[in-house]
Fold each of these.
Amino acid sequence: MSRPERELPERSADDKRAFKRELTEVVPHLRAFARGLCGRPDMADDLVQEALLKAWAAQDRFEPGTSMRAWTFVILRNAYLTDMRRNRFRGEYDETAAERILTAPAGQEEPIHLSDMHRALLTLPPERREALLLVGAGGFSYEEAANICGCAVGTIKSRVGRARAALTSMIEDGDIPDRAIGDPAAHRAILEELDEVAAGRGLAVPTK
Amino acid sequence: MDRKRRPDWTSGLKQLYDQVVEEPLPDAFKDLLSKLDDGKQ
C-alpha cells in the first residue's frame, strides 16, 4: 500500500482503544468479504488475519469517524490481490476443499439455492465478483465500492450490472459452469483475470 | 451502508454474507486481537 505521506495527528490512548474496538467489530465482515473473494474459508481467514495486522500497523492513517469497514476492506482487497500475484494460493488450490465448500449446502432446503448462488458467484470474473460482493452483499453504496476498488463509480455500476445479469442467467437456467471446481484451465483463466485486476487497479485510494 | 434502499436482487448475496458474519469468531482471531491489545504487534 503506497500512499502519499501526510501529517498525522498524534493518537491518544482513547483513540487507540476506539480503533481496536472498531477493528474488532468489523472482523466478521472482513471474514464474509474474504470468503466471497476467495471461496475457501481457511484461505479467507488467513487473509483476514493478514489484513488485521496491516490495519493495526497502519492505524495512524485511519481517520476516526470514517468507516472502519470500508477502510479495512481496502486493506483486505489489496492483501488479496498481492497474495494472488505472488502465487500464494495457486499451489495450494485444494480441489476437495473447493468441492466441499461449493456443494456444502446441498440437500438442505433453501428457497433461493444459496449453494447455487455461491457457486455462480465464484465463477464470475474477480472484478465483477468483488463489485457484487461490496454492493450486493456488503451493502456499500456504488460510491463507497468505487472508493474501495479505486475506480470510477460508473465502472462499479457496470460491473455490478454485468455480474447481476450473469448470475441471474446462470441460476435461472441452472447452467452454472464448473470453472471454479478443479478444472485446471478454468482455474488458470480466473487467475489470469485476477492478474489483470491487480495490475490495472492496484492503486486503491483510502476511503473517506 | 444504506440498508433501506437495498433492492431485492441482493437477498441471496446478503444471506451468503450474513451466514459468515454470524459465525462464531474462531479462536485464532481472538488470540490475534488479544496480542494487538498487548501492544505486541
Note: The longest helix of chain A spans residues 13-38.
Amino acid sequence: MMAERIETCDVAVIGGGPAGLAAALGARRAGAGSVVLIERDRTLGGILNQCIHDGFGLFLYKETISGPEYAERLIEDVARESIKVEAGAMVLDLAPDRLLRVNARQGYRLIRAGAVVLAMGCRERTREMIEIPGTRPAGIFTAGSAQNLVNLQNLRIGHEAVILGSGDIGLIMARRLAFEGVAVKGVFEILPWASGLERNVRQCLMDFAIPLELGSTVVEIRGRDRVESVVVAKVDGALAPVAGTERAIPCDTLLLSVGLIPENELSKRAGIELSPLTGGAVVDETLMTSVEGVFSCGNVLHIHDVADRASFEGFAAGKRAARFAAGERAAARTVRVSAGSNVRYALPQLLTAGKAGVEWSFRVTRPMRSVSIEIKGRTSGRIYARKKFPRLLPSELQKLKVSEAIEEDIEVAGHE
Amino acid sequence: MDGTQGSIYDVVVIGGGVVGCAVLRELSRYDLKLLLLEREADLAEGISKGNSGVIHAGFNAPAGSLKARTNVAGLALMYPLAEELGVPHRKTGKLVVALADEDRPRLEELKAEGDRSGVPGLEIVGESEIRRLEPLARGRWALHSPHTGIISPYELTIALAECAWQNGAEVRLEAPVEAIAYGAGLFRLETPRGVFSARRVVNSAGLFSDEVARLAGIDDYRIFPYRGEYLITDKDCGLRLGMPVYPVPSRDDPGLGIHITPTLEGNIILGPSAEPVEDKRDAASTREVMARLKAEAARLMPELGRTSFIHSYTGLRPKLIDPRGKDKFGDFVIEESAVRPGWINLAGIESPGLTAAPAIAGMVAEMIGAGLDLRKRPDFVPERPRRVRFAAAGDAERAARVVQDADWGEMVCRCEHVTRAEVAAALRNPFGARTMDAVKRRTRCGMGRCQGGFCTPRIVEILQDEGVPVDRITKRGGGSRLFYGRLKG
C-alpha cells in the first residue's frame, strides 16, 4: 500500500534553520528542479527564532540583526524560490538509498530524494552526560530549553540562577535572565578559559557584573522538589574537583551550557560515518558524507560559532546536492585529512586527489597567541598553506584555503 | 469535600506502588467498593520506579521464605499478566556469573536453593555456554535461569491500576493518610483529599508502611531505607545486551550486587548500589557510587567501561533489617494485624516484590475473603486496551493513524519519536496524573538522549492546552514546580 505512494524530489533538505534554509536556496539556485525543505518545528528558522538577541548577519548581510530577523531574510528568499516548504514535519528515518519517512499533521509519507542535505542542527549536553551528582529536583534546564521557555513562551523559570558552563547560549541567557530580574549568581566554567565567544563574555557577563569563575564546576545539586542550592568547587589540572574548595550557592535554578552535540540520529540510521572529533559526518570537499548523495552542513556537521558560517556551509551543500541530483559524480576521495598538534579538528576530512582551491574549517584545542597554522603533506612534508594568526581561541571557527592541487594525505596543525 | 461520610469502602489500599496496584486489580475481580490512596502525584513514585525491572525467577531468597514462595508463584503469574495488560516485557533468561573457579560453590548453593523453591530450569553452565547465551558476558561459570525476564515496573504499576479502575476501583492521588481512627468495625482514614471509611485496609505504603501502621496503632515494624543508584547507557552505545548479568552475590551485600540489565528499548541499566540512608526520600546520586558502579560493571563487561550514560536514577528499598544488626535476611511481612483485625500489613516488600506482586495480591484477596463475602463480578475485564506506540508501528499503521487523527502526525519527542496524540492520551489518564514525570513514564518523552531538552517546551505547551495553569506544572507534584508565572509583557 505504501509502496505506491512514494513521492520523489531532486533535493530534500532536512532542517529549516540557518544551514537548511541556505541549503534549499543553494540547491534551487544551482538548478535543482524540485527542492523540499522539511522542518520539524511549526515554523521555519530553527533555533534562530528563540535567539532574540542581536549579533547575527555580520558576515552574510554585513550588519548585525537579531536571530528572528536573520531567519526572516532567509525565509523570504526561500518564499521567492519555488521551494516546497514542509513545516511541522519530522523526518523519522533516512535509508541509505535516500528514502525518507516523514511524519506531519498532513500525513505520514515516504519520499525518495535524488540528493539529501542534512541540516538538523545540534542538541545540548545534559546534566546526565556530565554526571553531576545529587538530587533530581525541578529547576534544572539546559540553556537552550530555558531560552525557548523564556523567549518564546514568556515563562519565569526561577528567581536565582547559577549557570554551569560558559557556552554562548549560557552567556546569552545569563544576560537575558538578568534583564528579567533573575539574580544570576555566577557562571562556572570547568576549563581555564570561556567556551563562548569573547564578545559574549564581555557584553553578557562583564557589562552586567555577572561573575565568571573559570576552573570550577558544580559538584552537587541539592533540593528535593525544586533546586535549593548547588555546590561548586575548583577543579585541578585533570578537571577533577579539589576537596576542600566546595561552597554551596543558594539558588532555585541551574542552567546548563556545557556543550552542543551535532544531532546525527538520522545520519546513524542511514549508516553514515561519523567523526569522533566533530560528532558530525565525515565529509569530502563537496560536503558529501560516506553515503552517496547525502550531504551535511551547519551544526549537524560540526558546531559553528556563528549562524552565518552555518548558512555559508548550507549554500555550498545545497549546490553540491543539486549537482549530484543532476547526475554529477565526484572521483574517488583518496586524500585523508587529519588534525595535527593544537588543532581539534579540520574539515573536510576527505578530499578528491588533485583537487585545488579547497578551504578548510578548523578549531584549535586551546587559546593561543601568535600562532601559525599549516597544512602539510604527510608524505612530502610540503607546506600547502600557512597562515599566521595573532590570537586563536577554541570558541572560534577558522578557515584556511589551499589554492594548489593536493595529491597526498595532509595534516592541519598549529605552532606557537 | 469529596470523601463524604456516606461513602464506606469495602477495602482501601494505601500506597500506589506495584504491590498496592496489584492488590487493587486483584480485588477488582470481586463485587467490592474499592479505593486506593497514593500520597504522591502519580502512581509508582516510590520503590516501584527505581529498580532493575527484572522479573526474578526466585533463587535468591531461602526456600520456604515468603520472598521465595511469592517470587516463584509470582513468576508463574507475571508473564500471562503482562500479556493480559499489554505491558511490554520479555523473557530474556539471566546469568549469575562467577569470574573465578572458587566462586562456583556459591553458584551451586544458589541453584540448590532455587531447586528447593521450585524455580524451573536452573543450570550451571561453563565458559562456552556463557558466550553462546550472552556474547557480552564474561565468566568461568554461571548459573543460567531461563525464565527470568525484564519488564517496565512503572508501566506494569500503571496498567494494574488502570485495569482496576476500568473494573470500578477508585484511585486518589496526592492523598497521604495523615490520621487513622478505628471504631464500629470501620477504619476512618483522613487525607487532605477527604476522609474515607473502610471495612478493610491494606497497608501497602512501601517505605512508609511502618509509619502508616503506627497511625493505626500497630507498632510492629520499622522500615530502614536503603538507597540504590543506577546509571543508564545510551541505546546507541553499540552494545546489545540480551539478558541480565549478575555477579555472584556476596553474603554481606544487602542487595544482589551491582549487575547489568537490558531495558526493553535497548539501553543497559547498571547498578544498583545498596547503602542505608536516614531519609526515606533521599534519592540523591553520589560521585563515589557513580564511579563504583562503572568500575564494578566494567568487571562484568569490560566494554561498559568505555560507554556513555544518558541518565542516572536512584531507587529506595524498604528493608526490615537494621543495617547495624547481625541479621542479613529480612522476609516480607504479609499479615493481618492481631491488634487491628481487618488491617493487613504488607511491609518490607523489597526485591523480589515486583515479581511477587501478583502472588502477594492473591494472598491478600484470600485474607480479605476470610472476613468479607467475595463474589466474583461477572463483568470483570482482565485486559486493558493496548497502548499504541507510534515509534513501534509500521508504515501502514502510522499513515492510517495520522489520517484518523492529525495529532499522530505531530512529533513531540524527537529522540523516542512520541507524538502529540500519545502525550494527550497520557495526560487524560483516569487518575489525573499530570506531572512532567507522569508524561515521561507513560510516553517515554524525555527518556531519550536529549533528556527532555527539546520536548519539555512542547509538553509545557500541551499541558497548558489541556488546561493546566503554568504555575501548576510540576516535575512530580508537590513543590516541584517548573515555573513562577509569566514574565512581564
Note: The radius of gyration of chain B is 23 Å.
